[in-house]
Amino acid sequence: MIELTLEQILELHTLVIKETGGSIGLRDLGRLEASIATQSQNVFGQELYPTILDKSAAFIRSIIADHPFVDGNKRTAMIAGLTLLNLNNVRFIFKPGEIEDYAVNIATDHLDIHSISNWLKTHIS
Which long-range contacts (CB under 8 A, 24 or more apart) does 51-54 make? Predict the structure, then answer.
């Protein structure tokens, strides 16, 4: 499985802010590193998030919930999670505005990883 690195996430964040506006900046490196670790996290020798959809969902939720950036956490989370899928040959299909709306739902409704993974599953080809 191809994982995203810290440098790649920081670059994605910069691109998101440049394209859509807001403030560039990292608020908490430790929280971002914890989010990145969800891609390969193991507990008692077992992958905590065994499927690529689970990994992407955990990654998205972690960035949205932990707010490691000064601004653009929801946008960066969705781009990072979908990039993770794309790098691993999973194609995501969506309607205009759907990703933004779902990112807000994750934040406001405190959606869990299972719910996010199921939503991702309904949007892959």
Answer: 51/117, 52/1, 52/84, 52/85, 52/88, 52/90, 53/85, 53/90, 53/117, 53/120, 53/121, 53/124, 54/113, 54/117
Any idea what the CATH number is for the domain that residue 63 is in?
A: 1.20.120.1870
Parallel, antiparallel, or unpaired: how do β-strands 46-47 and 42-43 relate? antiparallel
pLDDT band for position 125 (50/70/90)?
A: confident
Contact (Cβ atoms closer than 8 angstroms) between residue 35 and residue 59: yes
Q: Which residues, including other chains, have CB under 8 Å from residue 22's CB and lie 6 or more apart?
A: 71, 72
- Does residue 29 lie in a domain region? yes
- What six digits make up the tokens of 27? 């608020």
Is residue 1, in this structure, part of any structural domain at all? Answer: no
pTM for the whole structure: 0.94
Residue 56 belongs to domain spanning: 6-18+25-121
**Digit-coded pLDDT (tens) for 14-63:** 999 999 999 999 999 999 999 999 999 999 999 999 999 999 999 999 99
